[in-house]
Automatic annotation (TrEMBL):
PANTHER family per UniProt: GLUTATHIONE HYDROLASE, GLUTATHIONE HYDROLASE PROENZYME
Keyword Nucleotide-binding listed: no
Annotated binding of L-glutamate, by residue: 103, 402-404, 426, 455-456, 476
A Pfam family per the record: G_glu_transpept
Key words, A-Z: Acyltransferase, Glutathione biosynthesis, Hydrolase, Transferase, Zymogen
Active site residues according to the UniProt entry: 384
InterPro entries, per the entry: GGT_bact, GGT_CS, GGT_lsub, GGT_peptidase, GGT_ssub_C, Ntn_hydrolases_N
A GO molecular-function annotation: leukotriene C4 gamma-glutamyl transferase activity
E.C. code: 2.3.2.2, 3.4.19.13
Modifications after synthesis and translation: Cleaved by autocatalysis into a large and a small subunit.
This protein's name: Glutathione hydrolase proenzyme
Length: 576
C-alpha cells in the first residue's frame, strides 16, 4: 500500500486519503481468529455438546472437554474415561502449540513377557480381552488438565452435556450394534459391561437407550474433585479392585502417579506449509515427516502413476523405521533428528527404483533378511474417535481419543461405569509379531512398567500462508496415511468436504501390499502400480473417519466437515 502510494503521481488530497487508509490498515489489529466457531466430531451428540459449551461462552478447550466426554458416552465402543488420547492444542493468545499426551501407561507390575506363555509364545487374546489388556487411563486427567490450564468454564459446566447423556441414555445406532456384535464375547465376560451394553447377553434393539448411571456418577465426581476424583479415593479403589478381581495387575499407586504430559509437537516444513503434528509416543508425526521428506527429495513429479508409486515406497520405508525405532520417548532413546533429516530422506529416496516396487523383505529390519511374516489384515472400523474444533478467537484443538479395539478390553470395574481400554495390545507384546492392526515392533516398544505404548494417532494442524486446517482420524495403523493424505489434499487446495471424502490408500511395510478404497486410483494409476510389481489389495470397508475444520484466511471463510464414511456431524456457527 505505502509503496504504491509513493510511486504514483497523485494530488495531495488523494495522497492524504491513501495515508489515512494505510494508517487504519496498520492500526487495525490483524484478527487472530475467524470470528465464528467450527467443530467436526464423530457423533452428532458430541457436536451438539461442543455447540452448547461454546454458546455458553466456552472456548475451544472447553469444547474439547465437552466433546471428549460426550463421545465417551454416545459412542462407548470408541473412546471414554477408561481410555486415552492425544490433544493437539493451539492457544491463540500466546501463539503456542502443544501436544497434551494423555496416553495410557502400563502398570508398575507389567513386564516384557506379560502376554507370553511358558514357552515364550503369545497367549491369544490376552492383550485384547479382560483385565490384563487394560493400561492406566489418561482421558480423565486430560479433561481436568484442559479445564485447569486452558478452559474458560468450570469442568462441571463442560462435562454437563455428557452427564445428561449418560443419565438419559443414548439410542443404540447401527455402528454401536455392529461393534457390540463384534465384541459380544468380551462384553459378556463381565457382569457390569454386559448389564450396560447388552440386553440379557444379546444385542439391544436398535434405538434402545443405553443408560450409564454409574458413568454419570463418576463424571460428577471428576467434576467435583478434579484429578483426585478419579485417580484417588473411592473410584480408584473400585477400579483397582475390579481389575484385580479379573486377574489384572493394577495398583492404587499406578493410578495415583498417572499424569498427562505436555509435549512439544513434531513440526514439519513441506512446500509452503508448516505442519504441526503428533510427537512420540505417537509414531504419527515422525512417520508423516519421513514420508513428506522422501517426497520432497523426489521434487515435482507430474506423472500420477510414478507419484503414487513414490508415495507407497515412502510409506513402506517410514513404517519399517516405525517398527524398529519408535516407542515411549521417556523410556527409550528415539533418533528423531536423524529420522527427520533431509539426508536420511535422500538415502531412502535413492533406494527407490522408479520402475519397480521394493519388496519389503529386501528392506530387512536388522541387516539380515530375517522377516516376521505377517499377512494379518489391518482390522479397523469405527472404534477410536476424532474431533476438530476452532473457536472464534482462533484457539484450536485436534483430538484423537481411543479405547483401542471396539469397547476396549470389555471390562467395566463394578459400580464405576468406566469401560477400560485394551491399549496394552499397542505394545510389541511379542517381538516381531503383528498386533491387531498388523503392526510389528521390537525393543523400542516392548512392554515395561509405566511405559506408554506406541500409537498411530495423529492429530494435526496444517498451516499455510492462506489456510489453517485442523484434522485427524481413527483407523488403527492407517491413521497415519489417512492424515498424510488429508495434509496433501489441504495443500492441493481441497475444501473441507472434499478433503474428508477423498478415497484413500495405505501401505505399512508389512503386510507387503497396497490397501485401497474404491476410487482411490484411476485405472491408469492402478495399472501402473501393477506394472511396477505392487500387490494391490482392494478393501470394502472404509478407511477412517476424518474430522476437519478449515479456515481460509485469505477468503475469510471457515468450513467444517465430517467424513461421509462415518456418523459424525460438523457445524460452523456464530456466537450470539
Ligand atoms: O493408538 C493407536 O494407534 C490405536 N490404539 C488406535 C486404534 C484405532 O484407531 C482403532 N481404529 N479405528
Amino acid at each position: 500500500m505505502y509503496r504504491n502510494t509513493a510511486l504514483s503521481a497523485r494530488s495531495f488530497g488523494a495522497y492524504a486519503c491513501t495515508w489515512i487508509v494505510a494508517l487504519l490498515l496498520v492500526w487495525t489489529p490483524a484478527r487472530a481468529g475467524p470470528g465464528h466457531h467450527a467443530v467436526a466430531t464423530a457423533h452428532p451428540l458430541a457436536t451438539d455438546a461442543a455447540e452448547a459449551v461454546l454458546a455458553a461462552g466456552g472456548n475451544a478447550f472447553d469444547a474439547a472437554i465437552a466433546v471428549t466426554a460426550a463421545l465417551g458416552v454416545a459412542q462407548p465402543q470408541g473412546s471414554g474415561l477408561g481410555g486415552g488420547g492425544f490433544f493437539l492444542l493451539y492457544h491463540a493468545e500466546s501463539e503456542h502449540s502443544v501436544m497434551l499426551d494423555a496416553r495410557e501407561t502400563a502398570p508398575e507390575a507389567a513386564h516384557r513377557d506379560l502376554f507370553l506363555d511358558d514357552a515364550g509364545e503369545p497367549v491369544p487374546g490376552l492383550s485384547l480381552d479382560g483385565a490384563l489388556a487394560a493400561a492406566i487411563p489418561g482421558t480423565p486427567a486430560a479433561l481436568v488438565h484442559l479445564a485447569e490450564h486452558y478452559g474458560r468454564l468450570s469442568l462441571g459446566t463442560s462435562l454437563a452435556p455428557a452427564i445428561e447423556l449418560a443419565e438419559e441414555g443414548v439410542p443404540a445406532d447401527l455402528t454401536y450394534l455392529q461393534m457390540a456384535e463384534f465384541r459380544k464375547r468380551a462384553l459378556r465376560a463381565g457382569a457390569d459391561a454386559a448389564g450396560i451394553f447388552l440386553d440379557d447377553g444379546e444385542l439391544p434393539a436398535e434405538r434402545a437407550r443405553i443408560l450409564q448411571p454409574d458413568l454419570a456418577r463418576t463424571l460428577r465426581r471428576l467434576a467435583e474433585h478434579g484429578h483426585s476424583g478419579f485417580y484417588e479415593g473411592e473410584i480408584a479403589q473400585r477400579l483397582v479392585e475390579g481389575v484385580r478381581a479379573e486377574g489384572g495387575i493394577w495398583s492404587l499407586d499406578d493410578l495415583a502417579r498417572y499424569r498427562v504430559v505436555e509435549r512439544r509437537p513434531v513440526v514439519l516444513e513441506y512446500q509452503d506449509a508448516r505442519i504441526v503434528t503428533a510427537a512420540p509416543p505417537s509414531s504419527g508425526g515422525i512417520v508423516i515427516g519421513q514420508i513428506l521428506n522422501i517426497l520432497a527429495a523426489a521434487g515435482a513429479v507430474d506423472d500420477s502413476g510414478l507419484r503414487t508409486h513414490l508415495l507407497v515406497e515412502a510409506m513402506r520405508r517410514a513404517y519399517r523405521d516405525r517398527a524398529l525405532y519408535l516407542g515411549d520417548p521417556d523410556h527409550v532413546p528415539i533418533p528423531v533428528t536423524r529420522l527427520l533429516s533431509a539426508d536420511y530422506a535422500a538415502d531412502w529416496y535413492a533406494s527407490i527404483d522408479p520402475d519397480r516396487a521394493t519388496p519389503s523383505a529386501s528392506l530387512p529390519l536388522f541387516g539380515e533378511a530375517e522377516h516376521a511374516a505377517t499377512t494379518r489384515t489391518a482390522r479397523e472400523s469405527r472404534q477410536t474417535s476424532h474431533f476438530s474444533v476452532m473457536d472464534a478467537d482462533g484457539n484450536r484443538v485436534s483430538g484423537t481419543i481411543t479405547l483401542n479395539y471396539p469397547f476396549g478390553s470389555g471390562l467395566v470395574p463394578p459400580d464405576t461405569g468406566v469401560l477400560l481400554n485394551n491399549e496394552m495390545d499397542d505394545f510389541a507384546t511379542h517381538q516381531g509379531s503383528p498386533n491387531v492392526y498388523g503392526l510389528i515392533g521390537f525393543d523400542a516398544n516392548a512392554v515395561g512398567p509405566h511405559r506408554r505404548p506406541l500409537s498411530s494417532m495423529s492429530p494435526t494442524f496444517v498451516e499455510t500462508p492462506d489456510r489453517i486446517a485442523v484434522l485427524g482420524s481413527p483407523g488403527g495403523s492407517r491413521i497415519i496415511t489417512i492424515v498424510l493424505q488429508g495434509i496433501l489434499a489441504t495443500l492441493e487446495g481441497a475444501d473441507a468436504e472434499a478433503l474428508a471424502a477423498r478415497p484413500r490408500f495405505h501401505h505399512q511395510y508389512l503386510p507387503d501390499r497396497v490397501e485401497f478404497e474404491t476410487g482411490a486410483f484411476t485405472s491408469s494409476v492402478r495399472a501402473s502400480l501393477v506394472r511396477r510389481g505392487h500387490r494391490l489389495a482392494p478393501q470394502l470397508r472404509p478407511f477412517g473417519d476424518l474430522q476437519v475444520v478449515v479456515w481460509d484466511r485469505s477468503e475469510d471463510r471457515l468450513e467444517a466437515a465430517s467424513d461421509p464414511r462415518g456418523d459424525g456431524t460438523a457445524s460452523v456457527f456464530v456466537q450470539r
